[in-house]
Structure to design on (128 residues):
């Protein structure tokens, strides 16, 4: 399950989280955002509670969109202890997303030594 976070709950759910948080900035009109959602859910399950996955509606949370200088959607931010550890944007293919998620897993495995890498399923991404 992906927790929806707003400007009101962002500090508590993301910045003050005891575990790393993968923030998915998305919008209802973004086709690629809908396409990657199942992969993000699988990624979260593979992380075995080592990473919290949250979604932010970029249109409804303009202050957060501005604060984190979004250039495109979806944009994924890995935030740990209030600090951005990785920024992922501009996915061009399923392999781009797969590599990005594997990089996050490696990063967290290095920091926490609790995650395992598994192969992500194929995803056909199309420009919207």
């Amino acid at each position: 399950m992906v927790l929806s976070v707003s400007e009101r709950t962002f500090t508590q759910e993301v910045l003050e989280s005891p575990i790393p948080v993968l923030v998915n900035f998305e919008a209802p009109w973004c086709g690629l955002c809908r396409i990657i959602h199942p992969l993000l859910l699988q990624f979260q399950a593979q992380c075995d509670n080592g990473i919290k996955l949250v979604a932010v509606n970029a249109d409804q949370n303009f202050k957060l969109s501005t604060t984190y200088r979004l250039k495109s959607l979806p944009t994924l931010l890995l935030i740990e202890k209030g600090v951005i550890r990785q920024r992922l944007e501009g996915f061009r293919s399923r392999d781009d997303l797969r590599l990005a998620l594997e990089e996050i897993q490696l990063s967290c495995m290095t920091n926490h030594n609790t995650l395992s890498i598994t192969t992500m399923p194929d995803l056909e991404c199309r420009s919207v």
Observations:
- Confidence is low (pLDDT under 50) at residues 113-128.
- The first strand starts at residue 3 and ends at 4.
- The helical segments are 10-15, 31-46, 62-67, 94-112.
